[in-house]
Amino acid sequence: MRAAWPPKGSLQRRLALALTGGVMAVWLLATVAAGLLLRREIDEVFDSALQEVVQRVLPLAYTEILAREADAGSDPQQVASVGAHREYITYIVRDAAGRRLLQSHDADPAQFPPNPAHGFSDGPSSRLYTEIAVSGTIIVTAAERPGHRQKAVRDAIKMLAWPLVLLLPLGIAGTWVLVAVTLRPIVAFRHEIEARGSGHLAPVSVSHLPSEIAPVENAVNALMARLRRALDAERCFTANSAHELRTPVAAALAQAQRLRAELPEGSARARTVEVESALKRLARLSEKLLQLARAEGASLIGETPQDLVPALRLVLHDLSAEGAVGIALPQTGRFVSTLDMDAFAILARNLIENALKHGDASEPVRVALTDDGRFSVVSPGPVLEPAILATMTQRFVRGTTMVEGAGLGLSIVQAITQGIGGEIAFVSPASGQEDGLEVAVQLPAATLKAG
């Protein structure tokens, strides 16, 4: 099975490594090419120096030999050094018989072959150049110090390669920063897409996107528009269904109540009471189902941030007849959030209704909205087991209570919470208490723009 390419990972990291690696590879290739060219040039220069030394020594040797021609058996003359220095090119002058007639002060006879050929040649450890003059009677050979030119090439290559040690970390860091700056619009584009969801389908708008990514932005916005239309159609259907369903149920309930009032005591009136109760349950169930559809299908994020405190006060006012409720609001008296106000009202109503129905009626329900967006409802009552807490958000599951209900209130709260990317938490006993149940939801906060 073939591995996927390119491998998964950060585009910034891959670009930084690729660009830095490419620069390093080009630099190394350039260093190798420069080394080869430098070696050729050094060979030419050093060979020219050998040839120049021989050609300059040859007239001097010829004159010296003529002056000493009478003393044929004398020792070879060693040219004295003008000052202490190391000779990189040495030479020896010999006659046809191989006797040394003249040599430089650092010359080592062991480096010079006995019968060198005319021109350039390579000795055991050095480069040689030989000139044969005066019908073969004078032989001048110059030798380069062993390893001299190789050392010059190595030193030159080292000077070219050393910058890589400093360039490598600087290149990686510089390329990383450059790629990060270049990819900043793409990163912002990614964050904008990640922020979208069923509750937030506003068009994505990122400035300075590269031309290669701009079509992706258009495609994403087109997809957002299609999803938005679908959700708007669903929301419209939900609203219309709520109106159409409530009207006949309300009419049937009114007729049943009127019929109950008109009938005398007896079996017929008792059956009318049962019909009335069934219609009330149907009305409550239809209301909860419509709220659940609203929580799961419609947009939960508003177009603009809104203060949720007025919606909470309105819900508390509607439920004031059902029981006592204590409320704690943010110190500023407001909490601005991106959560849709209708969705928050549904969430708050279901949590508070659930606490009023299933809590101890002798003690008030405590509702709190903090500055950081933590919305909690504490209902008085006994401590609940973890097994019971784990089933509280299941649909149509109700505890051991005689209170009427559909078993959908906490399911609706969970659907809204999941739609805004949060979680619902159940704590029993409640925080700071020995009993009771606390249900908490973290709401998304936002900054309300002035004017």
Could you name the CATH class of the largest domain?
Alpha Beta
CATH domain topology of the largest domain: Heat Shock Protein 90
- Shape designation: rod-shaped
Question: Which regions have little confidence, pLDDT < 50, spanning 5+ residues?
Answer: 1-7
- Number of distinct beta strands: 13
Percent range of helical residues? 40-55%
Total DSSP helices:
9
Strand order in the sheet with the most strands: 1-3-2-6-5-4
CATH-defined architecture of the largest domain: 2-Layer Sandwich
Strand content: 5-15%
Domain Histidine kinase: 240-447
InterPro entries: HAMP_dom, HATPase_C_sf, HATPase_dom, His_kinase_dom, HisK_dim/P_dom, HisK_dim/P_sf, TCS_sensor_his_kinase
Subcellular location: Membrane
EC number: 2.7.13.3
Question: What would you say this structure looks like, in words?
Answer:
- This protein has 3 domains: 132 residues, no CATH class; 105 residues; 152 residues, Heat Shock Protein 90 (2-Layer Sandwich).
- It is built from 9 helices and 13 strands.
- The relative contact order is 0.07.
- It has 451 residues and is an alpha+beta fold.
- Strand 10 and strand 11 form a beta hairpin.
- Helix 6 packs parallel to helix 7.
- The chain has a 6-stranded mixed beta sheet with strand order 1-3-2-6-5-4, covered by helices on one side. It has a 5-stranded mixed beta sheet with strand order 8-10-11-13-12.
- The N terminus is likely disordered.
- Its EC number is 2.7.13.3.
- Keywords: ATP-binding, Kinase, Membrane, Nucleotide-binding, Phosphoprotein, Transferase, Transmembrane, Transmembrane helix, Two-component regulatory system.
- It holds the Pfam family HisKA.
- It is a multi-pass membrane protein.
